Known about the structure:
Layout: H1 2-9, H2 21-43, H3 45-76, H4 83-101, H5 110-140, H6 149-170, E1 175-176, E2 185-189, E3 192-195, H7 196-218, H8 220-230, H9 232-237, H10 242-268, E4 270-271, H11 275-290, H12 295-314, H13 325-339
Antiparallel strand pairs: 1-4, 2-3
Helix pairs in contact: 2-3, 3-7, 3-10, 3-11, 3-12, 4-5, 4-6, 4-10, 4-11, 5-10, 7-8, 7-10, 8-10, 11-12, 11-13, 12-13
Amino acid sequence: MATEARTETAPLGRTWQRPGLVPMAGGALVIGILLWLAYNAYLNTSSFFQVLLIGVTLGAIYGLIALGYTLVYGILELINFAHGDVFMLGGMISATFVVQVFSLHDHPSIGSLIPALLVTLAIAMIGCGLINATVEFIAYRPLRGAPRLAPLITAIGASFVLQNIGLRWKGDGYTSLPSILPQGNVFSIGGVTYTWRQFIIILIVVPVLLGLVYLVQQTRQGKAMRAVSQDKDAAAMMGINVNRTISFTFVIAGTLAGAAGLVYAVFVTELRFDQGFQQGLIAFTAAVLGGIGNLPGAVLGAMLIGLIQAFNEGLTWHAPGSAWSESIVFSILILILVFRPEGLLGERTPEGG
């Protein structure tokens, strides 16, 4: 009886549970990666921070693409696999204007570079916004009430259509751009240099991201987007035009892809018709890692993926190398989907996603 009494009065909150095997393995993996990074930083500190800056630049580019995925998913719960190919077409549009319209060459003057970049950025964003809205109107809107598998298959089909447009337009080889970004250093501290080539990417990306946050959080259309993402029927009863709001969301996602296409084109200086599929999957992984449907999560996931890729390809001590970059990124995607499908900042839904 005394034992029973103690059992009945024992506070439930003090029960200690042994951690499961999966959390323990995940914690050990994270600790191992941090130790690997720390030892690489100890071996060559300047090289480590140089690679870190490259990772931030890559993460900024992936962030623009990942936000397009997360915007569309947040409002329709649709993975728009054509988004990566819209990004590819944005790069092709940018390459055409840089080379053929503005005739820029290696290391142009600032006076000719800045206007050309601003005009090309505007055209790429508008063009990709219209492309994305057209895809939504033709391929997705008729399937709005269909089972989820139908629009998913349609998204894959739209991806191949856009990919073949790029193939027909520019051929199956690489489209090369001149090295138009400045090569000087913004600063150089202790052997760590930060170039204007990297800094200009941030100067383009950050205002676009801030503009998106302002649009979603402060404007009337942004409030309509958030209302539709929560409950389409209730939003319609409140007088919100659901179709127009969804089309607007696709336009915004397309403009982000266009901006990312320009940034990627001038930074990497080589484009191919199938790079949208490759880079799009990496950005999709970033969106899932951060929590797809969550804007800060998409940026966080993109930065982490950019750093992972940079460390893998740039560090010297026991780094797998560039041949393993995609395998590592997609392994992260699989692990996230299996063990934490809501991502780092996402919320677990009743469906488990």
